[in-house]
Amino acid sequence: MPQKQTPLRPYFEKMPDIGKPLSDGEIRRSQENVELIKEQEKILAAEVERVRNAGIPAERVHDRGGMTVYDRLDYLVDDGTWCPLHSLYNPTDNEEGCTGVVNGLGKIEGKWAVIIGFDNKVMAGAWIAGQAENILMVTDLAKRLNVPLVWLTNCSGVKLMEQEAVYAGRRSSGAPFYRHAELNRLGIPILNAIYGTNPAGGGYQGISPTILLAHDKANIAVGGAGIVGGMNPRGEVDVESALALVEASRGVRAKPPGRVETHFYQTAYFREVHEDEQGVLDGIKDYMRMQPAYDPAMFRVAEPAEPKYPADDLNLILPAKSRHCHLSQIQVALAMIFHDRRDALHDLVHDAWRNHDAPFVGEKHVLFSWPVHGSRDATHRVERPRHVGQLPLATNHAVCPFELRFAAAVLVNALAFRTDKVFARQIGRGLSI
Q1: Which of 150, 176, 179, 181 is nearest to 82 (CA)?
Q2: C-alpha separations of 259 from 208, 338, 401, 428 in Å
Q3: Other CB atoms within 10 A of residue 306 CB
Q4: Are residues 354 and 274 in the same domain?
Q5: Which value, to the nearest 10 degrees, does the dihedral of the CA atoms of residues 53, 54, 59, 61 take?
Q6: Residue 222 resides in a domain
Q7: How far is CA 7 from the centre of its chain?
Q8: Are 256 and 363 contained in the same domain?
Q9: Greater pLDDT, 20 or 225
């Protein structure tokens, strides 16, 4: 009978405990902090709901027999695994109040994927200002995580009044061509479920993925005078050519280009065509089941377990206002960093950090700004900095994993905003500030 165990079993079965339960007094003193955090959470929830309800009401889409992007996500993603990203991201502060795409991480048939879909309630899923930056982050995320990128394409093309805010630049809406080619080269599949009419720019997301699946009422085409003009032997579109295009387009109005008849039966561009919207999503599920994935047991060192203390304790520990610092915050940071070694903080930082005027440049430096030798404001009783120094964590010559960097940041924040000036100065002298 073979004997098996997880790697380093004795260490991972019982790791050193960090922290201790909050006392009744700490819980009582932190209730105001909890209420402040809840207020901020309500504000964020209201903003998320505003973005979710942007555009026309969902009922109008349902009355037409269609599904919204949120309906499609609910059907496609495994229950309890959807992790939305960039919900409030709007880098150009456009009039729509969102970027017109919904994206996040989720499991499909038990496999993780980066998922992005056009919000077909917002200008029928048009390209709008700021959207390209969101798409760029999503494609980069799929590359870094090495997981499939799943598109739910339902795009009406570019918002004509803002083309200069959509097309211009290397990071613009033309970037998916390059990004998709890069992902395909790396062996990261791109799956695309196509709905509705996707003219011109609306076709960009659909002409370079690995697998295309379409609703039977969908069409997708990239065209226009500039592209067609490039096919002209003269290499340009003059008045005569433009009139010829107009005449040729008269018969196209009843039969839009890029229909199923073209891209399934003739070009075989579409891999599958489905009569109902759910069928397209079922096709995505089929391809996600084909994706390779490690069994969790491959890397598991211990059985998954819940945190020792309730997650809600974070609302009691992390201050909603920077001038308030919970003593437990300092204790946790000290426990994570020092481990009974008084020189541990020195191991984490450069000697050069003592000179607050020295510039630090380089990818391997993680910088934090913090007050040194603070002075007290008699009105607000808050530590205010006289000198602000740069604290680079020395990840280039000392092992400094994420947990230690995070703990160092927590400690720096805690020490910087302590309202006890004497305590802060004593700590400052102890660290040779």
Answers
A1: 150
A2: 17, 65, 52, 70
A3: 7
A4: no
A5: -140
A6: yes
A7: 33
A8: no
A9: 20
> How much of the chain exceeds pLDDT 90, in percent?
39
Question: Does the residue 258 lie in any domain?
Answer: yes
89-110: average pLDDT: 94
CA–CA dist 214, 280 (Å, integer): 6
Same-domain status, 203 and 326:
no
Name the residue range of residue 384's domain. Answer: 318-430
Using CB atoms within 10 Å of the CB of residue 205, give its burial: 0 to 12 exposed, 13 to 18 middle, 19+ buried. buried
Q: What is the pTM of this model?
A: 0.70
Total of domains in the chain:
2
Residues 203, 109 within the same domain:
yes
- 369 plus 274 within the same structural domain: no
Read off the tokens for 356.
């607050």
Q: Are strands 111-118 and 197-199 parallel, antiparallel or unpaired?
A: unpaired
CB 82 within 8 A of CB 73: yes
Helix (H/G/I), strand (E/B), else coil: 209:
coil
Q: Are residues 270 and 379 located together in one domain of the fold?
A: no
Q: What value does the mean pLDDT take over residues 336-364?
A: 37
Which helix (H) or strand (E) element contains residue 190?
A: strand 190-194
Beta strands in 182-328 (DSSP E): 190-194, 197-199, 211-215, 219-221, 272-274
With the C-alpha atoms ordered 397, 401, 403, 405, is the resulting torsion angle positive or negative?
positive
> Which contiguous run of DSSP H or E holds residue 391?
strand 387-394
**Would 305 be classed as within a structural domain?**
no
Whether residues 218 and 158 share a domain: the answer is yes
Residues 225 and 284 reside in one and the same domain = yes
